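Lay summary. Proteins are chains of building blocks that fold into shapes, and those shapes determine what they do. In this project we predict the shape from the chain. Here is one chain we studied, written as its sequence of building blocks.
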Amino acid sequence: MAGSDTGPKAFENSLTLSPEQIEAGRLLFAGPCDFFHGAQQLDQLPPPEEPEVAFAGRSNVGKSSLINAITGRKNLARASSEPGRTKQLNFFNLAGRLILVDMPGYGFAKAAKAVKEDWQEMMFSYLRGRPSLRRVILLLDSRIETKASDREVMDLFDRAAINFQVVLTKCDSVKPRAEEARYRGVLEEVARHPAAHPVVIATSSETGRGIPELRAELAGFAQP
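And here is the predicted shape, written in a compact code that computers can read:
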């Protein structure tokens, strides 16, 4: 891009959203949101009633912070003090219209191979067999390159035929040129995956950047 407005803000969040959609997202996420179920095994899942949107990402990607930011809570989702320790699917009911699912983090270096394989098997089974699941939000850290474990998870989504959308986190910690390069690299990565939604949303839980757009996007899956 040429001109003075180059950089991420010139192209970020290119999702075309009307003021009405932004307001619908705001109103939905202003409603009550409460934890109601945790599942460590597939036979512990709640009935698939309301539509669900799941959040996935590497340990320390900022998943808990993002869930707290979009719901306007400080401690709704809590990060484990030991990355990779939490292996539970956590379910949150948003205003009786949409279920948010916090998936366990992946890519933790200290985990044994068997633990990683168990995680993948459980996640694949959940993704493939959950009729109420509408989309997975895959969080990638804007500060670091896409890891092999991220690509493995994208491949898993392709195999499960589950639509996923990449959201970049911690964008307030990256300089504009570095962020633009990261953003464009992720767009190229996304284009290689048939299950991927083409729009990438850049966010910051600290500044609120991208939060209205993400809320509006997710509101499109909610029950009336």
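What the prediction tells us: Residues 69 and 205 are 6 Å apart (CA to CA).
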